[in-house]
Amino acid sequence: xxxxxxxxxxxxxxxxxxxxxxxxxxxxxxxxxxxxxxxxxxxxxxxxxxxxxxxxxxxxxxxxxxxxxxxxxxxxxxxxxxxxxxxxxxxxxxxxxxxxxxxxxxxxxxxxxxxxxxxxxxxxxxxxxxxxxxxxxxxxxxxxxxxxxxxxxxxxxxxxxxxxxxxxxxxxxxxxxxxxxxxxxxxxxxxxxxxxxxxxxxxxxxxxxxxxxxxxxxxxxxxxxxxxxxxxxxxxxxxxxxxxxxxxxxxxxxxxxxxxxxxxxxxxxxxxxxxxxxxxxxxxxxxxxxxxxxxxxxxxxxxxxxxxxxxxxxxxxxxxxxxxxxxxxxxxxxxxxxxxxxxxxxxxxxxxx
Length: 353
Known about the structure:
It contains twelve helices and nine strands. The protein is of the alpha+beta class.
């Protein structure tokens, strides 16, 4: 665009009358305009283009400096100089707009290429879930007992004191009824401390003979490596005519052999529970323990008072009951040393089972 000076001079038809100030201004306009358009066309990024825009068109840019020189020209030379300045500025603005459009399109194209999904690649299958170890143990135990003819029932987690304690022959001053051991709600209700209340509900609702198991959450004020304030129990009982301790031992031996292997030794030790008489603790032999034995459940013959509380004649019917902690069985079966691992929901731990 080196003819700009000549064009303006020709328009005045008085080349000899053009001032040196105007000639210098027109030359600088030509030089600056050509440099600006070239630099803008060569810009490789939006950021670089913005720097060029500010350099040439900003308030403190090159054109602002030229405009200040324009003000010192004689009045008769300002129209020609102003026209030239406006034309050159328009060219730079048009070049900047075209470059910005190009760079924005290139940026979008680059983003589309980088974020594109290759649908021909094999997919990554999500990790499959599986049952919690307590649920696995519960279902395995349920299969064992339903195979013996037991039915599965459920009972509420919030029970009346009558069902949770009184009907099960707990005396009013029994330690289990203390607030340090049991979660009490209002109006004489508690969070059930065991699944034994299902005995009362089932025997009160259905006439014998009965063979029932029930599992679910129970609650006690206790928490350490082997105890949790919320844990899982399973309760089972049989009521029929002529039921004896021999039936109880045979049933539980069959259960232990099914769950831990046919060669597993068991041991029945005398114990006490308010709702059974006689009562026993059941141990299994564990060679990896220094003591050699580990308790897995409690059991006994259903106390005549419990049968009476449910409207069953203890002279005609008898029965046995047993209760076990699913958490303890899971810990024993899978070698877990801290009950809290079962409730922390750490996928790294749970995925092992």
